[in-house]
Amino acid sequence: MSSYASVIIDISAKGIDRPFEYEIPDALAGRAKVGSTVVIPFGKTSRLGYVIDVLAEPSRSKHQTITAVLDEPLAFDETMAELAIWTAEKYVCSVSDVLRLMLPPGRSRRLRQENPTSDGAPRYSISQPQVNTKKERYAKLMVSADAARQAALELSRAPRQAAALRALADDGPLPAHRIAAFAGASSATLRALAGKGLVALYMEDTYREPDFTYPEELPLDLQLTAEQRQALTSITESNTSTSPFLLQGVTGSGKTEVYLRAIEQVLERGQTAIALVPEIALTPQTVSRFRTRFGERVAVLHSGLGLGERYDQWRRIQDGSYSVVVGARSAVWAPVDNLGLIVIDEEHEPSYKQDRTPRYHARDVAIKRAELSGAGVILGSATPSVESRYRADKKDYHLVRLTKRIEDRPMPAVEIVDMKSAERVGESGFFSTRLLDQLSETIRRGDKAILFLNRRGFANFIICRDCGHVINCVRCNVSLTYHSRERTLLCHHCGFTEPAPSLCPECGGRSIGFFGAGTERVESELKELFPETPVTRMDSDTTTAKDAHRTKLGSFRAQAGGILLGTQMIAKGLDFPDVTFVGIINADTALNLPDFRAGERTFQLMMQVGGRAGRGTSPGSVIVQTYNPDNYAIQALLTGDYDTFYEHEVTLRDALDYPPFSELINIGVSASDEDAAVSLVNRAAEMVRDKMEAGLLPGVKELLGPAPAPLSRLKNRYRWHLLLKTDGDAATKRFLRDAYSGLVPREVRDAPALTYDVDPMSLL
Ligand code: ADP
Ligand code: ZN
Angle at Cα 361 formed by Cα 355 and Cα 366, nearest 5°? Predict the structure, then answer.
């Protein structure tokens, strides 16, 4: 009896692909399994594909046949295959795009046809990966250790050769560079030994190891607090259920310690764990804590690593060399076996959502992966996403709380300064007297301060005071930001840059004004106000070098006193005991965004930044400068009480039917020609509306738009969108999937682009 394989073709799908069914010929029965790499006929060519399912019953009557099964390790197991299919369905994207996240990084897997075998059968292989394994020169003894020591005695006139022989006799085969380091033996020395037949030189695979060092002394034998112990017990003793835990713990309550202990128990059972952190380059401290606890068992995966480093980490995760994987979003796909636990730190962070295809949310994928593998999940946050907290209230998740800081340290005292009426200092006027007083006081005490401003550059509005002309990007409808060091105007969306003009390009007037503060301007003003105090500025302009985050944060940590000034990249996970003051220069940047999550984002970000203050023995204080002091999200900062904020927010969401009360699907259209964009978005809207009116899309509760996107032109493309509020049903998604190819014909060059974003994190 024949069997059939559901195969995903390995091409970056232009549209949204689907699996194709092929017959498994008898000769290949038993070799074509889930995860097998196969060669299949496709159109007039042969293509590479992956078996994602093996079926006894085909869904159609006619089939082509699999040509060959390649002699490759299985690319994924059945759980991951199921996860890929689930992800593609949930996010209305192609399975091959999801599979690409699970395959080794940096490999171009192109099919190559080799000379046929002697009986004429075709042979295939996969072309060279972009990344190769790194090889290194090694030396080993060709004689016994004793003979080598004896030879060393006789080589007294060649002390380096003698030292190399001793090193090899003591330690066995060694990389040449290590012999050079111990024994001062150059490659000429080793060649001389090889010439005498005592030593052989050869090349061997090595691994590129990322550098994680970070200056923190970590206690290894902490006594858990009563709350931590309770949290840990409820997490580790709940064998009855695998529904996720929401660990809601105020900043500084010791959530990391709970993760570490829970992982420890998983490792003791011989299982593995994945820990996701928002953006790993920004959280060197968390990585270092994992490494301190679990040492060599920890792998790290994130985009800040070189491709070679990433490839090597991946390869060794797959061969079982590591039992803990710490990483950013993409680590949720790490090829670990025998998974026992997934931890998601700062689960509310928007960076867990990928903002390009496939647009998955790592938290939701993690929960599904854990469910499929029978593993546990811990979602940790001081300010959980409204969705997660709502699920905990509905008992889909277990809520576990840490209400106190370690050693009962007080939460920082928060003060809100209304900038509409505040007394201000300095020429630019972005410091209130209150903020500056507290900052001076902190510096006088010899403590450290953190200043937060979520805008880089010098000024973000360049306006002609004579004619009112605002200088915008030529490719995007956003204003350009002035960067004073280079004296250029820069678009923060597309990177367009031009020299700053001295005359208004519109009216020729000389009164060009620079408005709106960015970190660069605040830095220069701080240097004038506090010439003696070191200022560390961290934003994407000052952290382009590899490892810049780790080294900058490391030296701020190690120095005495000083100010750390930065954008949201300094908000995450920093634990500096001597920071006693946090100043938020402008709390309104996120609040004014046209997005239903603006309030939530603002509250979360401000709580997170403020939570950096007073984590050591001295208490901390926070000043929040705002033009919207009465806004509920800002008001909630005063008490820092998440639950009050949540109750208000969830009522709003319910009234407007926003998540978690509905699932949103943002249908985005962009085209270089405005008419083409408008026509496509209108066709999409019409199609959905017709179907709704015919009663065929009962899952769609509301259709909003079409409307121009808030960023209505980006990189010379016009952008429109359409928003569906649905009850998350599969039928709507199937409809959208099927509609895709009808809306965007593949053959047309420069066709308008259509994207589906399920659970969008940004509606810009
Ligand atoms: P959170 O992630 O909840 O903001 P952290 O995990 O960074 O907090 O912990 C805050 C600080 O408290 C860290 O310096 C950590 O080493 C320390 N800490 C955690 N648990 C304990 C404990 N049981 N006893 C003493 N110090 C602890
Ligand atoms: Zn631009």
Answer: 150
Q: Is residue 125 part of a domain?
A: no
Pair (401, 286) in one structural domain: yes
Q: Is there a single domain that holds both residue 66 and residue 88?
A: yes
Q: What is the pLDDT of residues 596-617, one digit of tens each?
A: 899 999 999 999 999 999 888 8
Q: Whole domain around residue 471: which residue ranges?
A: 466-505
Asked if 522 and 642 sit in the same domain, the reply is: yes
Q: Which residues surround ligand 2, an ion (CB under 5 A)?
A: 473, 475-476, 491, 493-494, 496
pLDDT at 284: 72
Q: Is residue 121 part of a domain?
A: no
Residue 130 pLDDT class (50, 70, 90 cuts) = low
3-class SS of residue 729: coil
Query: Considering every ligand atom, which ligand is closest to the CA of 494?
Result: 2
Query: Are both 745 and 633 inside the same structural domain?
Result: no
- Best probe residue, ligand 1, of 287, 379, 574, 575 (max atoms within 8 Å of C-beta): 575
C-beta of residue 741 within 8 angstroms of C-beta of residue 748: no
Inter-residue contact 278 to 547 (CB < 8 Å): no
Residues 577 and 699 in one domain: no
Describe the crossing of helices 95-102 and 78-90 by its angle, rounded to 10 degrees: 130
The ligand 1 atom at the shortest distance from the C-alpha of residue 228 is 23
Q: Are 253 and 303 in contact (CB under 8 A)?
A: no
What's the gap in Å between 636 CA and the centre of ligand 1?
24
Same domain, 333 and 380: yes
Dihedrals φ, ψ of 667, to 5°? -100, 110
In the chain, the number of structural domains is: 6
**pLDDT at residue 402 tops 90:** yes
Q: Beta-carbon neighbour count of residue 433 at 10 Å?
A: 13
| 281 and 352, same domain (yes or no) | yes
> Tens of pLDDT along 421-460?
888 887 778 899 999 999 999 999 999 999 999 888 877 7
Which numbered ligand comes closest to the C-alpha of 258? 1
Q: pLDDT tens digits, residue range 505-520?
A: 888 888 888 877 789 9
Which residue minimizes the CA distance to atom 20 of ligand 1?
254
Which residues sit with their C-beta closer than 6 Å to ligand 1? Answer: 222-225, 228, 249, 251-257, 406, 575
| Residue 221 falls inside a structural domain | no
Q: Look at residues 654, 673, 700 and tell me which one is the last residue of a structural domain.
A: 654
CATH number of 67's domain = 3.40.1440.60
CA–centroid distance, 752 to ligand 2, in Å, is 19
Helix H or strand E encompassing 522: helix 519-529
Nearest ligand to the C-alpha of residue 251? 1
Alpha carbon of 550 to ligand 2 centroid (Å): 30
Q: Judge whether 127 lies within some domain.
A: no
Contacts of 531 by beta carbon, 8 Å cutoff, 6+ apart: none
The enclosing domain of 371 has a CATH number of 3.40.50.300
Q: What is the pLDDT of residues 643-693, one digit of tens each?
A: 999 999 999 999 999 999 999 999 999 999 999 999 999 999 999 999 999
Task: Report pTM.
Answer: 0.85
Provide the percentage of residues in the chain whose pLDDT is more than 90: 50
The 3-state secondary structure of 440-482, one letter per residue: HHHHHHCCEEEEECCCCCCEEEEEECCCCCECECCCCCCECEE
H or E element, residue 204: strand 199-206
Nearest CA, atom 10, ligand 1: 252
Q: Are residues 645 and 747 in the same domain?
A: no
